[in-house]
Amino acid sequence: MPFLTVCPVSGCEELLTDSETVECDGCKKTLLDVKYITTKCCNARYCQESEESYANVECPEGKCLPKDSRSGKKKPALQIAQCMGTDGCEGKAINGFPSNGECEHDICIDCLDKMLAECEITGSPPMCPNVLCHLPYTVDTVVALKEFFPQRAKYFNHFALENQAYLLIKDDSVSKTEISPDFTVNSRRMEVKCELQAPDETNQTTVIFDRTGNVADFIREIRRALKILPLDKVYGYYIRRESEKSAEKIENGRKPDEELVVDAKSINRSISELNLTSDCVVIVDTSGIVQIKTLPNNP
Hints:
By secondary structure, this protein is an alpha+beta fold. The protein is built from six helices and nine strands, in the order ββββαααααββαβββ.
């Protein structure tokens, strides 16, 4: 029995089958396991009952069936989604955008350009242009926008889009630790609050770590504590300094999170250089939230 389903294209809703050769072109009965013949003039297909009325295995009266009519239905034309960015926009939406399916609004290139112009003025990250949505786009989508609009490179450079931290620190190795004769637990022990920001959850825990350890081991311990799997994509690590007094504020009165750069050079830094205190929270972003670039604090 052939598998039947409905075409997913909007406005079509025609039944789909696992094969286009399931019907007899004569009587229109379904060709299952029965034998059928193919005419030599146009490759039409007929079951044995229909074959008896056709001499020389050719189409009746020399009239071949058009290929498009053999299935008994018309093939719908390819439909391009209409832009949903602004009311009255008649532009054609970009296929496959946004990249991560942040929302269901198809957007054309002109509406995206207008949205970026407004966001550049306000200094805000790119978002859906639809007035009822305005959902912020994720890192993957903003990276795609950066390719669409190279003339706006200066604007995109304000955001942390190049963090490839998810490509590093996936193993379970541990660096060697030196123990001095005057070693004490209290002098080396530190507790750091860590928070996982995922698309569908937020999880916070406390990581106990060695003050003399390096960044690589610290990140390994964070991933273990937050149960981040090796193949899980991490968009970035950030330090939130809650109690820090600073003139650099954003609209909600809090300083932007400081990016913890993770690369071949920084992973060997001592954790003490990060100046982590009991009020700090290390944020692990697996949701792709676009962050504004900030300079790390000097020790």
